[in-house]
Design goal:
Blueprint (H helix, E strand, L loop, with lengths): L1 E4 L11 E10 L2 E10 L15 E8 L5 E6 L8 H9 L7 E5 L5 H9 L4 E6 L2 H13 L6 E5 L11 E6 L15 H7 L6 H11 E11 L4 H10 L2 E10 L8 E8 L6 E2 L3 E2 L9 H7 L2
Length: about 290
């Protein structure tokens, strides 16, 4: 793993904090981590933030005039660029019922609540302590009326044909492949320990309304598995977009949308590049992640 300072144009400094931003490269995947430390002695979030946790400003304006924030704990798996890309890839109709499978700290439900007209968003997270932290982030942003977090195993969650849209940023590594992180929270986020790709798509088929949409971000190496499993459970792949670190490099991620009970007609969207030839963030990426 190597670290380098991210370009400051992505974020602005919060006036009561010192903000250090790193772009982290892990197995060719780009992730953003926003470390905020309170140096002014301000009691920023009262009792919602526990010991060893931090509050990260997502630089997305809310209707109340404040910026969207998220509570994170380095002990757990902190969100990266993949979650932000998925939240912006998903098409959310007005008044849609939405769920994020494996929501972690809740970044995707938070972004969707801030940037879309979804009626309600449910975050489903199997790790109870992580789900509790996500719920405190919801409270921190006064979004209790838009977001609910549930600590539940997706394989046991029952809410048939209820959702218009599902999102999922799943564990990328198959069980038994690669080195498993000794931190259980990180291992669950990266490896198919608690659920597999097939578990997620099977559950999605049951949870989606007819013509409901499943949006996933994953590794290109799993594309065939994703398409075959979607079709097995009557979810037709409709849109794919590959994400590249820069031109002339191999894709490191793919975004895919499938629609339940739809007819075949697969669209390949233009590629998304993170960096240009000069190592600067592309304008398209900046447009994607900005408010």
């Amino acid at each position: 793993m190597r670290l380098k300072p991210a370009q400051p144009s992505l974020l602005k400094i919060v006036d009561f904090t010192t903000l250090i931003v790193y772009t982290v490269f892990i197995e060719n995947a780009t992730c953003f981590f926003f470390f905020i430390s309170d140096l002014g002695g301000n009691n920023i979030e009262n009792k919602l933030v526990l010991q060893h946790e931090r509050v990260d400003d997502l630089q997305i304006a809310l209707s109340n005039g404040k910026n969207l924030c998220i509570i994170q704990n380095p002990k757990y798996f902190c969100f990266g660029l993949d979650a932000v890309l998925l939240a912006n890839f998903a098409r959310i109709p007005k008044n849609a019922e939405v769920a994020d499978i494996g929501c972690g700290g809740g970044v995707i439900p938070l972004i969707l609540a801030a940037k879309t007209n979804a009626k309600h968003i449910i975050g489903l997270e199997i790790q109870e302590d992580v789900a509790q932290m996500a719920q405190r982030s919801v409270k921190l942003n006064d979004l209790d009326n838009r977001i609910t977090i549930e600590a539940v195993d997706i394989k046991q969650y029952v809410n048939p044909a209820y959702f218009d849209v599902l999102t999922c940023n799943p564990p990328y590594k198959e069980k038994g492949s690669g080195l498993k992180n000794p931190n259980l929270h990180h291992a669950i986020a990266r490896h198919e320990i608690c659920c597999t790709l097939a578990d997620i798509i099977k559950a999605a088929s049951q949870l989606l309304k007819p013509n409901g949409r499943l949006n996933i971000i994953h590794r290109p190496q799993r594309l065939v598995d994703i398409i075959c499993t979607m079709r097995e459970y009557k979810i037709e792949p409709k849109r794919i977009r590959f994400v590249y670190p820069k031109p002339h490099k191999v894709a490191t991620s793919l975004l895919i949308e499938g629609i339940k009970n739809s007819n075949p007609n697969l669209l390949f969207e233009p590629p998304l590049y993170i960096y240009d030839e000069n190592g600067n963030y592309t304008l398209e990426l900046m447009d994607t992640v900005k408010d």
